[in-house]
Design brief:
A: about 110 residues, mainly beta, 6-stranded mixed beta sheet, 5-stranded antiparallel beta sheet, about 0% helix, about 55% strand, B: mainly beta, 7-stranded mixed beta sheet, globular
Amino acid sequence: DQQVKQNSPSLSVQEGRISILNCDYTNSMFDYFLWYKKYPAEGPTFLISISSIKDKNEDGRFTVFLNKSAKHLSLHIVPSQPGDSAVYFCAARQAGTALIFGKGTTLSVSS
Amino acid sequence: EAEVAQSPRYKITEKSQAVAFWCDPISGHATLYWYRQILGQGPELLVQFQDESVVDDSQLPKDRFSAERLKGVDSTLKIQPAELGDSAMYLCASSLGARGPLETQYFGPGTRLLVL
């Protein structure tokens, strides 16, 4: 049973517009959530994180929103740039345990 | 900027052969993780070390996989014998090991294994 789900395998956005990537989870004990970006043939790169005690965290063009009641988080990228084209993984963890990753969403930003 | 180092980057081997992957975490990071990523999936944990001790190896196929971190710094993951289904990207990550933001895991570039 998948504890972290990214239901959209792919997303296409035009340069300058907003990209919204979504993630759902089932384990209410998760207390820390992260987004990673991955280019082909490279390891995942940490992007942004949020603790379960917060509902929003912002870092430049990237903002993560957490809705604990819905067990849902989203990553907003504004404005989107062609260099943002990559696979985005949502990950979650319970204190003292390893990260559980979703299957990823491939973002394509066209110029 | 400090990075997690992994070698080799690519490995092609025949089934039933032995392979080994090496990882050097970011200096000062007490926690080290080995993940396996199959194409189209997210990374899945194989083993987690806290210093030199194994914290979680519940998903490690122990009949053929072994991992060690003898001095609590760098680590080796071994597969013997390799099987066709082991073809995947093997990722190493490290973190400071504490809670909250310090728990953020930083990944190396990975080793792409192809078993023929």
